[in-house]
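=== RUN LOG ===
request id: a7f3
mode: sequence -> structure
chains: 1
length: 210
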Amino acid sequence: MLFCDVTGSTSAAENLDPEEWAEIMNGAFEHLISPIYRYEGTVARLMGDAIIAFFGAPIGHEDDPKRAILAGLDIIDSILSYQAEVKAKWGLDFGVRVGINTGLVVVGEVGSDMRVEYTAMGDAINLAVRIEQTAQPGTVHISGDTHNLIAPLFEFGPAEEIEVKGKSEQVTAYDLQEQIAFTLQDSSRAHVAVEQFPEAEAAFASARAH
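=== RESULT ===
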């Protein structure tokens, strides 16, 4: 599960006409949504200034955990030019942050005869939202469960124990820093990733969605 929102949106919207704010958010959504589709994820919902997306359904890949992470990194990178554009045109500053979690969810059509949407439901979504709320603007924060699946492929900050509303115990989270660029000279690290990632994929097979 991937949750992403625009920080500073409430104060920014107060100083603009609704039409101007809608124009800004429509532009922002282009940068938030495009990476999800690029890595064949599914956008489940737009929520004012945020999006919820998941990977693993209806199209499943063995490397869905990696795809979710790469989408998160692309969101952070691609929004930079748009932030500068908004600053130049409207004089506004805003940030974007991403939270990612892996877990079991129910995916399918939800709603009534009047309105139906294809989405995911489950505690894994709630945790992705909570983890995202602990992230700093311009960063990708992931859960310990997601970290266990893709650890050999990326660089991370130190583990953090965070308080999550509704959870009796603290939750482990990591600040994603960058993807590891494997080279022929880096054979030892590459060997670790090649050996470990299939095991991570097998562990993820029972979840199938992010």
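=== NOTES ===
The chain has one domain: 2-203.
Helices lie at 9-14, 18-38, 64-90, 123-133, 144-150, 187-204.
=== END ===
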